[in-house]
Amino acid sequence: MAQVQLTGIRKSYGAQAVLHGIDLDIADGEFVVFVGPSGCGKSTLLRAICGLEDIAGGDILIDGTRVNDVPPAQRGLAMVFQSYALYPHMTVYENMAFALKLAGKRKAQIDEAVRKAAHTLQIEALLERRPKELSGGQRQRVAIGRAIVRQPAVFLFDEPLSNLDASLRVQMRIELARLHRTLATTMIYVTHDQVEAMTLADRIVVLRAGRIEQVGAPLELYHRPDNLFVAGFLGAPPMNFLRGEIRQWNAGQAVVALAGGAQLMVSVAAHMAPGAHVTLGMRPEHIVTDAVDGIPATVFAVERLGEGTYLYATVIGSTEQVIVRADPDATWDVGQYLLLGAPLARIHVFGENGRRCPP
Ligand SMILES: Nc1ncnc2c1ncn2[C@@H]1O[C@H](COP(=O)(O)OP(=O)(O)OP(=O)(O)O)[C@@H](O)[C@H]1O
């Protein structure tokens, strides 16, 4: 188990700067997930922690010790890749035992570690098979098992489930959560899968173009995003954004005029001058379709998914579009007239600079 501290981590590939000074403290036993759009630097940051990438600036501390110049194998970390990277000519047992053999551990010690990890991962019956005789999920378990036997201070995962089909991903996700509870080891995990991030993380780190946009517990990020980027990145379908203009502000309440002419009351603590441009954010599941003084809209598409129905609507008199998660048992039709609104506490307000204006 270990703390990981990153201060001012910078990295460039040639002239292209990909990490612009990352500061992050990861607590002992914490499960931290890096998310962000493709190319934002998630994997590079993980590989830098691991020691597979040199950094141009900053410090990496593991349990208070600076490891910038410590080779990967001596950092006390174990990395699990998307590609599994198993040795094809070795059995599962040999794959899992390999690092311990290299480290000169005794045979009995190796045997105990491999069998214990195999038991944890429920792959005891597969120990004599070779990787090609395993399913994708089983291979991924072996890759994790190979990391577990080394008893690393920190596990690093780079999109470990993305080669698996949907149902296996769910199963492995639940197993990873269980593994984290059992081992209580620090885990750092890169994914572009929002559900993995939301369900596995103690804290999510949202990266964008080599910078941290926000760090926080999953629901904190979901319900109180610091800015438009984080608000739009977490959640599927994404948060709806409507552009508007402050008409008046009084004692923490503002009236916002929207494209199309409707007006909406919102909560904003700090004074806002009339004429200021804002963006209102509303999640699809928070929108009601029969609001008093709501925003008039017309449905142009309906998607029935069984557990929910998504309505795609256009705000009348504008080009603004809104997605609503609606009652799956009600009747919805293209062309239907809606009056959109949301509870005051569910309407997010973002200022001209894209930052959240707290209620
Ligand atoms: N070996 C390399 N040489 C040059 N550029 C690289 C190299 N590896 C990564 N990059 C660039 O660095 C940036 C960050 O890449 P990185 O792989 O960290 O992104 P990512 O957030 O993990 O993306 P993805 O979700 O697509 O895996 C990208 O612009 C990428 O093109």
From TrEMBL:
Which keywords does the record carry?
ATP-binding, Cell inner membrane, Cell membrane, Membrane, Nucleotide-binding, Transport
Q: What GO molecular function annotation could you give as one example from this UniProt entry?
A: ATP binding
Domain ABC transporter stretches: 4-234
Domain of life of the native organism: Bacteria
The UniProt entry, under SUPFAM superfamilies, shows: MOP-like, P-loop containing nucleoside triphosphate hydrolases
Entry's InterPro entries? AAA+_ATPase, ABC_transporter-like_ATP-bd, ABC_transporter-like_CS, ABC_transpr_MalK-like, ABC_transpr_MalK/UgpC-like, Mo/tungstate-bd_C_term_dom, NA-bd_OB-fold, OB_MalK-like
Parts of the chain that traverse the membrane:
none
Q: Which NCBIfam families match?
A: PRK11650.1 (NF008653)
UniProt-recorded name of the protein = Sn-glycerol-3-phosphate ABC transporter ATP-binding protein UgpC
Native source organism of the sequence: Massilia antarctica
For this protein's source organism, the top of the classification is: Bacteria, Pseudomonadati, Pseudomonadota, Betaproteobacteria, Burkholderiales
